[in-house]
Amino acid sequence: MKKAVFLFIGIIAMAACNRSPEYYFHRGNVSVSKGQEMNAIQDYNKAILLKRNFTDALVARGMIYERMGDKQKAEQDYRRAVDSDKEHVSARNNLAALLMDKGNYKDAVEYLDQALEINRDNQYAVLNRGLAYYKLGKYNAAKADLNKAIRINPRFEMALYHRALISKKEKNYDAAIEDLGTIIGNNPNATAAWLERGKIYYRQKKEYALAAQDFKRADDNANGSMKALTSFWLAASTYQIGYYEQALESALASDEIEPNSAQTLGLIGDIYAKIGDIANAEDYYNKAAANAGANADAYKKRMASLRRK
Question: Residues 6 or more apart from 259 whose CB is under 8 A from it?
Answer without folding.
Answer: none
